[in-house]
Every structure is written in structure tokens, then in C-alpha cells.
Amino acid sequence: MKKVLLAVLGVLLVSTLLFAGGDSEAGPQTFKGKNVRVVIGSTSTSGDSYLIAETVSRYLGKELGANLKVDAVGAAKALDAMQTSKPDGNTIMMFHDMTYLGISFGAYDKMYSLENMVVGPRIAQNPGSAWGSRADAPYDDLAGVPEYLKKNPTAVVRVACEAGGVSHVGFIVYWQWVKDVYGAQIADRIRVVVGGSTGDKLQMLWDGNTDIIFADYTSLLQYTQTDDPKLAMKFVGLMDNIEGVSATSYADQGITLDGKEFRFSKDFLIYLPKNFPADLLAELDAAMKRVNADPGLVADLAKMTYRPGTYLDSVKAKEFIYGKRNSLQGLIDRAPSLDDLVL
User: Are 166 and 98 in contact (CB under 8 A)?
Assistant: First the structure.
């Protein structure tokens, strides 16, 4: 009886091992059927981070056969999720250049650097990083601000932006241009007010606590179209040109970096936890390539003034975003601290 029992146990053990081995070789891992949490580095559901991630996720989810749900957790939590989440495809991040700019500016620890996550495909671009003022501001655009300050020697222009992000880049390029062209005495009267969300900055503008704010073009557009004198705004500068939009860019206004034309569009990429499986990454690349060519997605992004059709696979996207990060580092290293420019 004992020999029979041992024989049965041996058969069961061999069967279990064969089953386990067969399961591990059943095929590559897949997104199909997964509930995927898509974290973004913003808490707003009205800005470009959410709108691009939500729009792309709807199309990408269908291609992957997965349920993608956007979670607007903010930059700190989104970056942390890339360090703490398992590399199983259940959590991914869609975000723009603040992914690396926060580290380049020293706002976030180096543990959150690009080297400690996997770069996925590029999903879209947003050329509409915008500066806006009240409609009755005494200058028409950013290039007109230093001229206004020359004529009004006691005036100060307050600019609301965020430390460690795209607005920080936009501000230091502009401030340096003013200093180079008009001198330090004029540049020193352009002061920073550190703002939070777009809603917070809008309220600061309407309350008279700042003069110019940074936000996404689409977030400010409605206020440039209203006749309400309390809310009415105008665009005073874009960091890049938007097709079909008349608002002028840095390049249009002659705002340069080291004497050269400066343009900056936000690049939105998918980011993944370290050690992300190659088969899942390949599946994601292939699905995003198909989504990129979908006329529905192209139309949906274009009507929000976002730039579709900019897909790069994960290999090319990594090379691109590392290069973009490195090209900005010299500017960041020599830029004055926002703390020194705060009003």
C-alpha cells in the first residue's frame, strides 16, 4: 500500500511539474483582458495631460483588448508608481516632458530618472504650451513686456508658473532673452509667482495677484472668447506654433535662446516600470502604431489642437527623449533659480 501511495504521489508531482512548465511556455505575456491603470502626472481632468491620456487610452485599450483607466494622481505619485509597481502591465504612465524635467531641475529625486524606468512609445505632441494675460493688459505679447517696462520704470510684471516643469523651461528661456536684449535692470522686474493647477493660476490672475499665467492653450481658449471683462483673457505667447491658430509663438516674436530660434512642444510618451517584459513592450508598440494611424484618433486629437501622427516606437522614443533631455540640461544648469526671481 505504501509503495502504491508513493507511486501515485510521484505521478502527481511529475504532472504538476509538466503542467507548470507547459504553462510558462504557453506563449508571451499579453495585455489582453487586463485592467490597466494609466497614471498621469497631473491632478487635473481638464488639462492636456488628462485629455491626451484619456483619448489615446480609449483607442489603445480596444487595440490591446484591455480596459485602460486614467488615474490623475499628480507628478509625485505617478513617478513613484513607476518605481513601486510590478512590471506586469497592470500600471503604466502617460506623461509629458515633466517626467524628466522635474529631475533635471532638482524638484524630484534622481531615483525617478528615465534610467530607472522603461521608455515606451511616443503617443502625441502638444505644441500649445501658452502664456495668457488679462485682455486689458498694457502689452500685446511677451515681446512687448520689456518695452512696457522701459516706459514704466516703476512697474513690475508678475508671471505665474510651476517649478520643475515645462513652464519653468518657458520662463527661463524668456527671462534670459529679456536679460540678453534689454539688460538685467529690465529682466529683474519680471518676477515669478509660483502657481499650482491651471484653476489656481486663473484665480490668481482674476484676483489681481499675477499678470501672466502659463497653461495649456485649450484650457485658456474659452476665456479669450468671452466678453465678460472679469474673465476675458488674451494669449501673449506660445512655445510653438499651432496649425490654424493665429496666436504667436516665441519664434514669431523673435524670442530666442542663445540667438537661435526656440520652439518647444510637449512630447507625450508611455513610461513603464523597470524590467518591463519585452513581449509586453512589443505588443504595446504594435498596438500604438495601429492606433496612431486611426483616423478617429487623429481627428479627436487635432480638434483639441494636439498634434497626432507623431508615433515613435519605444526604441526611437527612448533615443529621442534622452536627446531632448540632454539638450536642455545646459540651459537648466546656468539658469537662475526661481527662488531668486520670486516676488
Answer: yes
